[in-house]
From TrEMBL:
The keyword Metal-binding applies. The lineage of its organism: Bacteria, Pseudomonadati, Pseudomonadota, Alphaproteobacteria, Rhodobacterales. The keyword Magnesium applies. This is Nucleoside diphosphate kinase. Its EC number is 2.7.4.6. The active site is at residue 115. Pfam families: NDK. InterPro entries: NDK-like_dom, NDK-like_dom_sf, Nucleoside_diP_kinase, Nucleoside_diP_kinase_AS.
Length: 138
């Protein structure tokens, strides 16, 4: 059984969409096995998104992620990484499929409501960035 790291981003927590987004995950068969609401510092956001530090939008992305609380969570299920990315939809909401979270809720390519790990190695790293083993209850 696979696990992935999900983040409900500031644009979504601000608009009170946590429950609606969680419903999408649960309807897709993903189980929320850990979850907490936190406010990232600029430093933490910068570290989390370090892989993007050469991209032109890095500063904007970090400021956005630290601007309001986020909900970080571990989702579990068969093929959880791919399934989560399917439920999220394309990064740019204009390209996201009907019924996906980003199609329904994202505001722009930057303020796109959710993050999901993209591979097993990054999922493991991202989960341990936010959670200790004791906080994950499968
Ligand atoms: P994540 O699940 O958040 O990693 O999204 P992704 O894998 O679909 O996209 P990617 O890893 O390429 O980019 C990470 C995040 O950077 C995106 O989710 C966006 O929030 C942000 N981002 C990507 N491209 C742009 C852009 O052109 N402008 C801005 N402002 N933000 C961007
Ligand atoms: Mg990514």
């Amino acid at each position: 059984i696979e696990r992935t790291l999900s983040i409900i981003k500031p644009d979504a927590t601000k608009r009170n969409l946590t429950g609606k987004i969680n419903a999408k995950f649960e309807e897709a068969g993903l189980r929320i096995v850990a979850q907490k609401r936190i406010q990232l510092t600029m430093e933490q956001a910068g570290k989390f998104y370090e892989v993007h530090k050469e991209r032109p939008f890095y500063g904007e992305l970090c400021e956005f992620m630290a601007s309001e609380p986020v909900v970080v969570q571990v989702l579990e299920g068969e093929g959880a990484i791919a399934k989560n990315r399917e439920v999220m939809g394309a990064t740019n909401p204009a390209e996201a499929d009907e019924g996906t979270i980003r199609k329904e809720y994202a505001l722009s390519v930057g303020e796109n409501s959710v993050h999901g790990s993209d591979a097993p190695e990054t999922a493991a790293e991202e989960i341990s960035f936010f959670f200790s083993g004791l906080e994950i209850v499968g």
